[in-house]
Each structure stands twice: as structure tokens, then as C-alpha cells.
Q: What sequence folds into this?
């Protein structure tokens, strides 16, 4: 079954993974913008924008069905 980015992004597992990553980055001292619900970022697949000083890094949080088994959430940095 093929899902749109918006459908995938509304999945509760994906929301939980994005929030977990956001909290970890905040604990490390980064400013983090959650743009996962902003349609402007859907095409690029950007969920979070990590900011430290003036450096901005776009992050795509990857959460699949194995994440709950392995305890791992992958992230991809997007230019």
C-alpha cells in the first residue's frame, strides 16, 4: 500500500518518534523547530529543523515498524 507523505506523517508512531528526537536535541542545547505538520516541508520530507547559532540543519525522522523492536530511530540530514 502506498501512502502520501501527509498520511505517513500523521501516523502516531511517526509523531512519537519526531517528538522524541525533538526532545533529545533540545536536551543537547539545540533550538529545534518542528515543521512536520507544515505542508511547505512535505515535498522535502523535513520533520525538524535543528538550529545552533546560525547553522540550520534539516532533519527527516525515519520511523518504521521495526523501531519499536530495535529501539532505534533513524534520522536523515537533508540539504
A:
Amino acid at each position: 500500500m502506498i501512502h502520501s507523505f501527509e498520511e505517513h506523517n500523521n501516523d502516531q508512531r511517526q509523531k512519537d518518534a519526531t517528538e522524541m528526537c525533538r526532545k533529545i536535541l533540545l536536551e543537547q542545547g539545540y533550538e529545534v523547530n518542528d515543521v512536520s505538520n507544515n505542508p511547505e516541508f512535505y515535498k522535502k520530507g523535513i520533520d525538524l529543523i535543528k538550529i545552533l547559532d546560525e547553522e540550520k540543519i534539516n532533519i527527516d525522522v525515519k520511523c518504521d515498524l521495526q523501531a519499536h523492536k530495535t529501539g532505534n530511530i533513524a534520522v536523515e540530514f537533508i540539504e
Summary: The beta strands are 31-34, 48-52, 55-62, 74-78. The chain has three helices and four strands.
